[in-house]
Amino acid sequence: MTSFETMLVDLLRRGVSVRFAARGDSMYPSIRSGEHVHVAPDARPLRRGDVILARAARGLTAHRVVRVSSGAVITRGDNALGRDAAIPYHAIIGRITHLEREGATVTVPSAPLRIRVAARQLHRHLFSLSQLIRSLV
Fold first, then answer.
1. How far apart are the first and last CA of the chain?
2. Which of 7, 64, 87, 130 is most buried (most C-beta within 10 Å)?
3. How far apart are CA 120 and CA 44, in angstroms?
């Protein structure tokens, strides 16, 4: 665990909410890279649609809950078609309560329609393919 993760986990366990800049596009467009997310230690039961912060194999990850079971939760980034591996409850360290976008505090938007996610990914792949073809010509 990095020192940043250690500090975050420690603060949340003590009941202190934290704020940090999100990195990556896995939650785009709901959470954009560089926006500040607010994470709270929240004891309420998890529900489908909640965005959690968890210690995953790839490190700290903020993804949306898509399924809740008795031993773990399944999450997925809003910008991903596939689901993540099951996350045990002990790896969940907080819930994203809101974020800062363009100077305003906003709630985390609802998950985008899966067709929009698929269309964005297809567009990205077609654009990359067209760039590759242009470089070969």
1. 46
2. 64
3. 33
CA–CA distance, 3 with 15 (Å, rounded to integer): 19
Per the structure block, which two tokens stand in for 118? 């698929």
- 101/90 Cα distance (integer angstroms): 30
* pLDDT tens digit sequence for 50-106: 999 999 888 899 999 999 998 899 999 988 878 999 999 999 999 999 999 999 999
Residues 118, 76: contact at Cβ < 8 Å? Answer: no
Q: How far is CA 40 from CA 50, 122, 134, in A?
A: 12, 35, 47
- pLDDT at position 114: 64
31, 38 Cβ separation under 8 angstroms: no
Neighbours of 58 (CB within 10 A): 9
| pLDDT of 44 strictly over 70 | yes
The domain over range 3-111 is classified in CATH as 1.10.760.10: no
The Cα–Cα gap between 137 and 133 comes to 6
